[in-house]
Amino acid sequence: MLSLQEQFGQIDIYLFDQLLRGRITRGMSVFDAGCGFGRNLVFMLREGYEVCGLDSDPRAVEAVRQLAASLGLPEDNFRAEALESNTYPDAIAEVVICSAVLHFARDDEHFRAMLMGAWRLLKPEGLFFCRLASSIGMENQVRHIAGRRFLLPDGTERYLVDESLLMQLTTELGGVLADPLKTTVVQNQRSMTTWVVRSRK
């Protein structure tokens, strides 16, 4: 019997919640926009989900390809590409995961380019799962640099969103929140917000 670690890898707990609630089920097409080394894909690959993904780090993509190959799945579903200029066709996935990616945006233009690069991959009525750094709950602990770039208490520099921007973007995308925004504040370090949107069309 596989251990929990072998079954689920280092899956994000809030993505795991979507699995538990039956929003992401076997047979669905899933795209990981910023898959890294596959921390959120271990279970889905093992369970035979139709999974594709990209990452800007070729080493990470090669690791995910090897994982897929070890399970007898297509390796070429994963590409080393920038999210904002990816070459995948539109509307290819019922679920798009974009976890810990968008807060690396350089500025507003880059952020929106990355967001649209991920959103266009989503099928009508699909589920967009996003985790990203925010200022929510840490407004007095982040130091403004320029635009939406801030220095966090943990010493990292990130592009930070807030509730107002996420609600505005939800409307602009023509989506609807599948869940209320949920934010985890890591004491004196950072704040991470989970933004889950259902596409209407």
How is this structure best described in words?
By secondary structure, the protein is an alpha/beta fold. Helix content is 26%, strand content 30%. It has six helices and eleven strands. The strands form two sheets. Strands 1, 2, 3, 4, 5, 9, 10 and 11 form an eight-stranded mixed sheet that branches. A three-stranded antiparallel sheet has the order 6-7-8, with no helix packed on it. Strand 6 and strand 7 form a beta hairpin. The longest helix has 13 residues. The radius of gyration is 16 Å and the shape is globular. The relative contact order is 0.14. The model has no long low-confidence stretch (mean pLDDT 96).
Top keywords for this entry?
201 residues, alpha/beta, three-stranded antiparallel beta sheet, 26% helix, 30% strand
Brief rundown of the structure:
The protein has helices spanning 4-8, 13-20, 42-46, 58-70, 108-119, 163-172, and strands at 29-33, 50-55, 78-80, 93-99, 122-133, 143-146, 149-151, 157-159, 175-177, 182-186, 190-199.
Based on CA atoms alone, the radius of gyration comes out at: 16 Å
Strand coverage percent: 25-35%
Reading the helices and strands in chain order gives: HHEHEHEEHEEEEHEEE
The number of distinct helices, counting runs of at least 4 residues, comes to 6
- Total number of beta strands: 11
| Cα end-to-end separation | 42 Å
- Helix content estimate: 25-40%
General form: globular
Give me the secondary-structure category.
alpha/beta
Return residue spans where pLDDT drops below 50 for at least 5 consecutive residues: none
Largest sheet: 8 strands, mixed
- Give the integer mean of the pLDDT values: 96
